[in-house]
Amino acid sequence: MDKKVIKASGAPRAIGPYSQAIEAGGFVFVSGQIPLDPKTGTVVTADIKSQTELVLENAKAILAAAGCSLSSVVRATIYLKNMADFTAVNEVYGGYFPSDPPARATVEVSRLPKDVALALAFVAFRSPDSPGCCPRPFSRFCARSLACHCAPHTPPSRFLLGLTSAI
């Protein structure tokens, strides 16, 4: 299975040896996002609601770079430094997922990078209805052009020859 590194100019750059997101097997795995200003890379220490909004906006930018949106998210993980922030974070989070929210876990942790109060990580599914997305992302044969993201691309004649020789 091939993987594709996702880089979003509208979100903070990674602060370590990791990617903002990886697309593989029809899924987009968004690394944990913390409240960093996407322009300056500095930590935003406003109230927890503002931090949550910033993290979700940064995640939206990364998902958009992968051809997805928040409605594509199937799994979310929220890491909180203090579970007392749960209600405020949940209020903001709910506004970004007004219907059919993803599966989710929320955990309290002792410490997060740069001593921030929260981090969010997402897994999104890149729907076959997405522009340029192959309807069979796991297949060996892509019915669409080479512009499709699925791989490996096997021309129909070679695919059929492979089946014939295997019989």
What does this structure look like?
- The chain is of the alpha+beta class and 167 residues long.
- It has two domains: 3-127, RutC-like (60s Ribosomal Protein L30, Chain: A), CATH 3.30.1330.40; 131-167, no CATH class.
- It is 24% helix and 22% strand.
- It has three helices and six strands, in the order E-E-E-H-E-H-E-E-H.
- It has helices spanning 48-65, 86-96, 156-166, and strands at residues 3-6, 21-24, 27-33, 73-80, 103-108, 118-125.
- A six-stranded mixed sheet has the order 1-2-3-6-4-5, with helices on one face.
- Helix 2 (86-96) links the parallel strand 4 and strand 5 (103-108).
- Helix 1 runs parallel beside helix 2 (86-96).
- The protein starts with a strand and ends with a helix.
Salient structural properties:
167 residues; alpha+beta; 60s Ribosomal Protein L30, Chain: A; 2 domains; 3 helices; 24% helix; globular
Topology record:
Blueprint: E1 3-6, E2 21-24, E3 27-33, H1 48-65, E4 73-80, H2 86-96, E5 103-108, E6 118-125, H3 156-166
Parallel strand pairs: 4-5
Antiparallel strand pairs: 1-2, 2-3, 3-6, 4-6
Helix pairs in contact: 1-2
